[in-house]
Design a protein that fits this description.
Keywords: DNA-binding, Transcription, Transcription regulation. This protein is an alpha/beta fold. Helices cover 45% and strands 15% of the residues. Strand 6, helix 9 and strand 7 form a beta-alpha-beta unit.
Length: 338
């Protein structure tokens, strides 16, 4: 016999409506009846039918989450925090991974829409040129909230972003105040908001201190350690003049600089200072430990899930971006003064 609400109702000699309401803790049902129904449901191993529930409530109680990767402490922390916050609101997470590939991201969206998730939280790919994933979500009128990253070409305001500009400006300012003037910056893909805003913060701090950096001292790589290592080694091959400090768009990029320095015998921080952004777990374990910016991931996930659920419940597309802060953590990769 299939264990469903009708089977439970027949065993207890009550109506199916009574079982449904009892399982939902409806106040119409006596507490003693609710307990009997729940106890029997647990004994029988009853599992609610999500499809059946969605037909009656028009909701599945699920949220789709798309991230660029999972083998990375920043994104694994995001996933965990989103899962916990969704659970607090009675939602379950369906996780998809784009692997920094725009076509895979589009397939992720198609899968989530086919599963009829109630809404989608997305940390998009770094190279987002076509915007097809966003367009498809819009066509199906699914609530969508971007977290952490957002393609610059997309004008939606339903985002939870970090205070990238001000944190980058403040880090650059403090580096300059320690005596560093010859500064290099290694940036990520230009189509994404965090690259644009962090570079803008760096440049504006230099401008305010009347410091000029040659254009070829602003390198463009990916968000990964391999591309930044290659870009920095290429620079060193063609330039004998070393910067005093290399500031990186994220910690993975900074790790690439560490690897390049190790390969050519440049010492950190004796010969060159290095900073990151994002506070991945390995940043404190590097030799020397990496100066970085710690972002409030827990707060960002709380706000993003709440924002998405509000969109699900209200069907309201008008919203505002929410900016989440962070703090600068100085470690041994930067001297106190030079």
């Amino acid at each position: 016999m299939k264990v469903n609400q009708k089977y439970i109702a027949d065993l207890l000699k009550v109506s199916r409506v009574t079982v449904t309401k009892a399982l939902q803790d409806h106040p119409d049902i006596a507490i003693s009846t609710r307990k009997k129904v729940k106890d029997l449901a647990q004994e029988l191993g009853y599992i609610p039918n999500i499809v059946g529930r969605s037909l009656s409530t028009k909701k599945t109680g699920t949220i789709g989450v798309i991230v660029p990767k999972i083998n990375h402490s920043f994104f694994s922390t995001l996933i965990e925090e989103m899962y916990l916050e969704a659970k607090n609101h009675g939602y379950k997470i369906i996780l998809m991974v784009s692997f920094e590939n725009e076509e895979t991201e589009l397939d992720n969206v198609k899968s989530l829409i086919s599963m009829n998730v109630d809404g989608i939280l997305m940390d998009p790919v770094s190279h987002s040129e076509k915007g097809e994933a966003f367009d498809l979500v819009e066509k199906h009128k699914k609530p969508l909230v971007y977290i952490d990253r957002k393609p610059r070409s997309i004008k939606t305001q339903n985002c939870v972003l970090f205070d990238d500009y001000n944190l980058s400006y403040s880090l650059t300012k403090q580096i300059i105040e320690r005596g560093y003037e010859k500064l290099m910056y290694i940036n990520g893909p230009k189509e994404i908001n965090i690259s644009y805003n962090r570079l803008r913060g760096f440049k504006d701090a230099l401008k305010d201190f009347n410091i000029k950096t040659p254009e070829n001292w602003i390198l463009h790589a990916g968000f990964d350690k391999n591309s930044s290592k290659e870009k920095f080694l290429e620079f060193l091959k063609n330039n004998s003049n070393l910067p005093q400090a290399v500031m990186c768009v994220n910690d993975s990029t900074a790790i690439g600089v560490y690897n390049a320095c190790k390969k050519i015998g440049v010492k950190i921080p004796e010969d060159i200072a290095v900073t990151g952004f994002g506070h991945v777990k390995v940043s404190s374990l590097l030799n020397p430990p990496l100066t970085t910016v710690k972002l409030d991931l827990k707060k960002a996930c709380e706000v993003a899930v709440e924002k998405l659920i509000n969109l699900i419940d209200s069907n309201n597309t008008a919203n505002k971006n929410t900016i989440i802060g962070g703090k600068i953590i100085f470690r041994a990769s930067v001297k106190e003064n030079i």
